[in-house]
Amino acid sequence: MPVTYRPITPGQRDLSSLARPSGGFAMVAIDQREALRTMFERHSGGRPVGDETLTQFKVSAAQVLSPHASAILVDKHLGFDAVVDSAAIAPGCGLIAAVDHFVPGHGEHIGRSVVDDTVDPAEMAARGATALKQLIVYRPDGSAGERAEIVGEFLERCHRHDMISILEPVARPPVDGRTWNRDEMVVAAAEELGSAGADLYKAEIPLGKEGSDDELRRWCGRLDEAITSPWVVLSTGVPPERFPHALEIACSAGAAGFLAGRAVWAPVIGSVHLDQALGDVSVPRLQELTQIVDAAMTAGPT
């Protein structure tokens, strides 16, 4: 049964604090938590990686990348305070605070995601954030009612504190073992949540590792039909070398840019000279993606 969401905001909020002059979005995510720790541990010979390593990475990434990004997304527990305290965000770059709490389960770092009651939106706003982000786990055997409750709570908080709301549904396998199609679930999530009232929708890219350009354009077209707000894509599940072309196709189908992490900075994880690697590798990647977005905003959907 379709879930009806109570309207939270009359019309769209002004998203210019997160956007480029072209109107597109070139945003970098550094809000990863245990998944980021796992990435570092792959380069540490299996040695445990402490919180301080992850926090320093986030600060360095923000310092090096924010001059080239339209916004940076960071989490409260491992990065937000350190990033703000170190003045790592460049002038003109927006700041997004993640307010999701990840609950491990089913062999995954993120078995469930709920609104984190320990994150105070008023504090985030006072420290410079103009937007909040909530991840929603979408499983074919999951509860639409539970998802609606989480989304409603998140949107209400954004409305109460006059902050931009960014919703990030991610498709995950069913717990009951039924057969599933990840790409169909990405679209199903958009059909359920794409009109829930968020100001910006962050979507997974269908056909992450395979499929023709025409097939990907059709899948992204289905997302565009389902999502009533502006939407951007994330890079998880897409090989870094494929992401620029996938982004170009998504933008031609209606996407307004990206909010991505791994496609920008994953290759530098474990680098001895992190700041230099971010500058030499990640900045050119980010600039390439930004050029794609700006060109797409000029051309418009095809």
Walk me through the structure:
Belongs to the aldolase LacD family. One of its GO terms (molecular function) is 6-deoxy-6-sulfofructose-1-phosphate aldolase activity. Keywords: Lyase. It comes from Phytoactinopolyspora halophila. InterPro entries: Aldolase_TIM (IPR013785), DeoC/FbaB/LacD_aldolase (IPR002915), LacD_aldolase (IPR050552). This protein has a single domain (17-299), classed as Alpha-Beta Barrel (TIM Barrel). The protein has an eight-stranded parallel β-sheet. The protein is α/β, with parallel strands linked by helices. Helix 7 (213-226) packs across helix 8 and helix 8 runs parallel beside helix 10 (274-299). It has helices spanning 34-42, 51-65, 76-85, 121-126, 144-160, 182-193, 213-226, 243-252, 262-265, 274-299; strands at residues 25-30, 71-75, 94-98, 100-105, 108-115, 131-138, 164-171, 200-203, 231-233, 257-260. It has ten helices and ten strands.
Overall domain count? 1
Sheet having the most strands: 8 strands, parallel
Q: What is the CATH class designation? A: Alpha Beta
Number of helices, counting only DSSP H or I runs of 4 residues or more: 10
The name of the CATH architecture is Alpha-Beta Barrel
Taking all residues together, what is the mean pLDDT?
94
From the N-terminal CA to the C-terminal CA, the straight-line distance is 33 Å
Give the overall form: globular
How do the strands of the widest beta sheet line up side by side?
Answer: 9-8-7-6-3-2-1-10
Strand runs, count = 10
Radius of gyration: 18 Å
Strand content: 15-25%
GO biological process, one term: 6-sulfoquinovose(1-) catabolic process
Keywords: Lyase
GO molecular function: 6-deoxy-6-sulfofructose-1-phosphate aldolase activity
Organism: Phytoactinopolyspora halophila
